[in-house]
């Protein structure tokens, strides 16, 4: 899995940092998480084609996380995209997407579908990955996302034997249909199979206060991308604005036993000197990565 930061600033762009946007690639799957204004130019700079995007996931309706979508939808139209673009976001996102789709009397030549997320759970699935959404604690409805690799599973022979299914032709049916009725009981494939390896997981948690529920939701991820807007001395204003300090973000990573941590969404007040954020996060989590625009992390 490859994660590329296209924008790492909160609220306003700075000389070196554009607004929130993270590109994700795994095999034939391309995602964008948030699309702040200026994201199109960041795509060009990073040498990534937005044409390959399968879906855009918008965390919440603050302008610095979604205004870039208007231009992106129009550019893809101008360049004759054919493939459907799916846009996921909280309830209300459809209203914005529908507005962007018709801005200036635009007639779209490709389908753009807005899908509103209403509670935690799986929101997207293809052959390579699943995407799960879960709500976080911001000043407006906001979702975090976790991409989970799809891993092939083998039938667990011990469990099959116990059920008397080991040498049965029903085995094949089970593999094909995903479930069968066996001796009066429904047997599901996932109940009697074990994955060949642990699936890779990348979580994107942006614009949230510190919240215990995040720890549960990102437990054991291979990479946690998370907001670190402020330093500890701004902790109260972080809470008021629905944000976290770098140390709080590092605490989530540590308690969730994330394998790697990438911090992003920094307040512009630290644009000349990030040392305080680095020190405070580094005291809690060993070697956190401080994301910069165009930085790439391979998982
Ligand atoms: Zn933000
Ligand atoms: Zn926000």
By CATH, the architecture of the largest domain is named 4-Layer Sandwich
Choose one word for the global shape: globular
Helices, by number, come to: 10
Q: How is the biggest beta sheet arranged?
A: 7 strands, mixed
What is the strand tally?
18
Look at the structure and give the mean pLDDT.
95
Q: In CATH, what is the homologous superfamily of the largest domain?
A: Ribonuclease Z/Hydroxyacylglutathione hydrolase-like
CATH top level assignment of the largest domain: Alpha Beta
Which stretches are low in confidence, meaning pLDDT under 50 for 5 or more residues running?
Answer: none
Task: Find the CATH topology of the largest domain.
Answer: Metallo-beta-lactamase, Chain A
Q: How does the helix and strand content classify structurally?
A: alpha/beta
Domain tally: 2
**Which value, in Å, is the CA radius of gyration?**
21 Å
Structural topology:
Blueprint lengths: L1 E6 L13 E6 L2 E5 L5 H8 L8 E3 L5 H4 L1 H11 L6 E6 L2 H10 L9 E6 L3 E5 L3 E7 L7 E7 L3 E3 L1 H7 L6 H8 L1 E4 L2 E4 L4 E3 L5 E5 L6 H6 L5 E5 L7 H7 L4 H10 L5 E4 L10 H8 L6 E2 L5 E3 L1
Parallel strand pairs: 3-4, 4-5, 5-6, 14-15, 15-16, 16-17
Antiparallel strand pairs: 1-2, 1-18, 2-3, 7-8, 8-9, 9-14, 10-13, 11-12
Helix pairs in contact: 9-10
Bound molecules: zinc ion (2 copies).
